[in-house]
Amino acid sequence: MTQHAADRAPRPAPQPDLFGPALLPGLAYGEAIITAGEEAELIAQIEGAKLTPFQFQQWEGKRLTRSFGWTYDFQTGRFAPGDPMPSWLDPVRARAAAFAGIEPDALEQTLLIEYGLGAGIGWHKDRPVFEHVIGLSLGTPATMRFRRRTETGFERATAALAPRSIYHMRGEVRDDWEHSIAPMPEPRWSITFRSLR
């Protein structure tokens, strides 16, 4: 079942399980956005997409990545046009756009990630140049974590991402909250689509 925080009034306080009774404002989630067969095909395409180790300054992550449409260089801070999106992404990009209620052409950037054993992603916000962030989760289940600084520390929440699920971040959860992916004991892949502001 797909829910959208903007459709909920009055807005309840965030709950520990974001995809249960309450969602953070601006966060939507849906399960089984693709079939198991489509998932296997997408994983094969990601593995054949010439991914390279993620580099952040002098640090190399336990994940492989590749961007299309636009790229961001964490070494130099340069944001620049990248390789065009391959045609095999078109059907899933259309499905992601429909889930978010926007046009497929608005999703101008794609990030492919293959997570190694024990890999996750640290706390961050997506670059300010991006507006809508739509992620497709493949392979093993994952835990997405959220935090927002308060006067006394951090307000926190977590969300379970099922295989073949999709999430959409915009507005408050996109701009005011940091997010991360907890390290996983099994391989995982993801496809993230982003629009420009």
Describe what you observe in this structure:
It is a single chain. Residues 1-17 have low confidence and may be disordered. This protein has 197 residues and is mainly β. It is globular, with a radius of gyration of 16 Å. The chain has a single domain (18-196), classed as Jelly Rolls (Sandwich), CATH 2.60.120. The chain has helices at residues 36-47, 90-100, 171-175; strands at 3-4, 27-30, 52-56, 59-68, 70-73, 78-81, 107-115, 121-124, 130-139, 142-150, 153-161, 165-169, 178-181, 188-196. The strands form 3 sheets. Strands 1-2-12-9-14-7-4-3 form an 8-stranded antiparallel sheet. A 4-stranded antiparallel sheet has the order 8-13-10-11. It has a two-stranded antiparallel sheet with strand order 5-6. Helix content is 14%, strand content 45%. The longest helix has 12 residues, at 36-47. The relative contact order is 0.23.
